[in-house]
């Protein structure tokens, strides 16, 4: 189980998108009455940054714990056990969008959602949501 989870941790860390630059997004899409979706974009970026930080921190901690460089806390053990059975850790669910998908589907969905926000930032709001 440890080797499998360690491989999953490495893969997820490599695939996680970088944090969104909230300051730049706020300047590029300022809050305006005529453009109310600007606020939605910035708020969603902020929410995903919090989620990504939680995921990244737990994965880095788990990676160190599996390598023997850090004590495996109860929280990290819970993350480990969830990942070992292909489930989304409860720690992530607390900061996440609602999802009933298993871990693989959840991470694919997370990456797709972050890509959508990134595309919105780069090219303007999508024609449909």
TrEMBL record:
UniProt GO MF annotations: dynein intermediate chain binding; dynein light intermediate chain binding
UniProt-listed InterPro entries: DHC, Dynein_C
Domain Dynein heavy chain C-terminal: 2-129
Pfam families in the record: Dynein_C (PF18199)
GO CC, one annotated term: dynein complex
One Gene Ontology biological process: microtubule-based movement
Record-given protein name: Dynein heavy chain C-terminal domain-containing protein
Organism of this sequence: Chlamydomonas leiostraca
